[in-house]
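[Meeting: bench + compute handoff]

Bench side (C.D.) handed over the final construct sequence. Compute side (W.E.) agreed to return the predicted structure before the next meeting so the bench team could plan truncations. Sequence as handed over:
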Amino acid sequence: MALFYKLYVMLFRYLLLDPCSLIRNNLFNNYKKNNIMEQSKFPGWHGTTIIGVKKGNDVVIAGDGQVSLGNTVIKGSAKKVRRISPGGHDVICGFAGSTADAFTLLERLEAKLEASPGQLAKASISLAKDWRMDKYLKNLEAMLIVTDGSDIFVITGAGDVLEPEHGIAAIGSGGNFALAAARALIDSEQDAEAIAKKSLTIAAEICVFTNGNMTVEKISK
């Protein structure tokens, strides 16, 4: 009984001296545990470089074919640039991020375009709103570059619909490399397709998550 009383007094004094210590330690341990579980849950999809170039009457979107899982190359010939024609209007889409998530978003975008044919800006904004607000969609991890030949937009899960400067957009792990290369080439005599291909080639030489197996789609107005 005396031993129990001593333990009770010691515990009471400990809590009295530092009443928040147990709560603080529990919060820290839970955060650490959740963080480790989150990191080990899935190694993450890396990949890709997608670039869109608008020059003259042409708009080109090009993407590489590599899909990586952690440090392992899973596939080298994936097609990450697609042409869809909702309502009879051609739209080119390139995506970076999780493949399944990207296809889910492409399906949503196609449905938006079918509801408002030929209005890419309206459909893109509507998709971005849903992506940002929807309980299911907001967990999707991907980015899109879309064009109808007149406009080119970058759509993100943060609710952004961005129209890039200089007619050049790039996303993905090697996006910055491709963007810098395209910006340097845009004033040359090369056309949009040549600039996109050359920029993607440069990105593939620098970024380990990008290869030289390209998919290229073009729309001319």
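W.E. noted at the follow-up: The radius of gyration is 24 Å. C.D. will use this when planning the next construct.
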